[in-house]
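Practice problem: predict the structure.
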Amino acid sequence: MREFLIAPSLLSADFARLADEVRDVSAAGADWLHLDVMDNHYVPNLTVGPLVCSAIRPYTTMPFDVHLMTMPVDPLVAGFAEAGANSISFHPEASLHVHRTIELIKSHGVRAGLALNPSTPLAVLDHVMDLLDVVLVMSVNPGFGGQAFIGQTLDKLRLLRERVDTTMQRTGRPLLIEVDGGVNASNIARIAAAGADVFVAGSAVFGAPDRKQAIGRLHDELDTVAQSAGVAAL
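Answer:
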């Protein structure tokens, strides 16, 4: 049975008080904490590195979900694994050897994910899908927070859901579909119905005056999908 997970994005937090922000969303019921790592090279903007990941690690037991929007990828993997990352996703366009990068991530005992931009075809998964733990579908173009959800992502999710289910039946291993970009209470049910398991929510959580209420509303929306599809909403 699939489980639904909410992963607030640290990119939308108040960077002047990160420890408090992390504790707040943890207490509010978040499942994962999503760290958007931007290098002002592969994408616009410059955000956090392993030092920040390590600094906030003591303030929560939530799994840290690191999304590397960087080029190159490999030099950062060990640093984030040692800083407390539980999963690390990267973009295939940013790695010269995708298979090698996946194996590097997994060698550190961390879940490995491949992140797909809106225009990246599902075909990039063809020869590595059995190795992955997460497929991160971007529903906005990476580089900025607060963007609107791209509606065509739903079609991509439906196709990916079929592939993931087939892969899990063959391998017997879990494989999560994560969606990042423009997720909020008004669209999360449609995104879940299309096939997503993990929902990165930035401003929808950190921008809310009451984070517990915001996460609760997201879960309420997911409950409607879970009841009709036999999915567990945590």
